[in-house]
Amino acid sequence: MGRLFLRYIEAESVHCCALCATHLAAHDQVVSRQFRGRHGDAWLFGDVINVNDGPPEKRLLLTGLHVVADIYCNGCDTRLGWKYVEAYEEQQKYK
Predict the structure, then answer these.
(1) Which of the chain's ends, N or C, has fewer CB atoms near its CB within 10 Å?
(2) Where do the Yippee domain residues begin and end (predicted)?
């Protein structure tokens, strides 16, 4: 296994992985807290770091059909959620 390089955020408030405390996003990168996921409330972030993407796949979400990819923590490989890759409906493309 190679050496693990993680980036750190210099900010007053930082969102981290709950399992390994790897920095993921500065608090000012929260775009919205008004989302629902499969397991409850979900947040939409702008830029995140220290994550890797799974393969893109089509999923039917509450807001329609989207192409999404699961994201995983680079520190511990925990599935953190997913990111939007493509939205088919014009009003959903901001995601």
Answers:
(1) N
(2) 13-95
